[in-house]
Amino acid sequence: MVGGVCVSFVLWNPAWETGIDSIDEQHRQMLAQIEGLLVAIHDHHPGERLPGLLAFLADYVETHFSNEENQMRGSNYPGLEGHRAIHDHMRAQVEHLLEGYRQKPEVMTEEVVDFLTDWLIGHINDHDLPMARHLLRFEAKASADAPKGLAAG
Ligand SMILES: [Fe+2]
């Protein structure tokens, strides 16, 4: 119960873990930001969290997406182009959100939170998990193919 209103939180689900710590940590941070805004909305003070979340989001779609794209490129991921196109679309949507906030800060509502939550969870399930399976296979193969140390001989 927050501010006299029942809030249903989206809890981190272990099924969303990709097994790649840097990616999972960034996903958790994104969800925590969304939850923080949800609490603030129900507490009738969304304005206190909104600028912080939007600043986080703007940085997230650059640093987190670039991080994933670099890993996909480095491992010759066949789904790179499609995944990057989805990231680009989200980059544009975040830009649209930022512009909307600059013009009408009061229109930011729970639907935006729902949009971000659905996007994040859908994206993890449909795109990040298959990507991570590829990255982990690639890493395992690279370390198996690596020359053995002298001690091994
Ligand atoms: Fe992604």
Radius of gyration: 19 Å
Series of secondary-structure elements, N-terminal to C-terminal: HHHH
First CA to last CA: what distance? 63 Å
Overall average pLDDT: 84
From the spread of the alpha carbons, the general shape counts as: elongated
Strand content: under 5%
Q: Let me know the largest β-sheet.
A: none
Number of strands: 0
Helical segment count: 4
The secondary structure category is mainly alpha
Listed once per kind, the bound small molecules are: fe (ii) ion
Low-pLDDT segments: 1-7
Percent helix, as a range, is over 70%
What does this structure look like?
- This protein is mostly helical.
- The chain has a domain at 23-116.
- The chain contains four helices and no strands.
- It has helices at residues 21-42, 46-74, 80-103, 110-145.
- Helix 1 runs antiparallel to helix 2 (46-74), helix 1 packs antiparallel against helix 4 and helix 2 (46-74) runs antiparallel to helix 3.
- It is elongated and about 60 Å long.
Map the helices and strands:
Blueprint: H1 21-42, H2 46-74, H3 80-103, H4 110-145
Helix pairs in contact: 1-2, 1-4, 2-3
Annotation keywords:
elongated; mainly alpha; binds fe (ii) ion; 153 residues; 4 helices
Please provide a brief summary of the model.
With 153 residues, the chain is an all-alpha fold. Helices cover 73% and strands 0% of the residues.
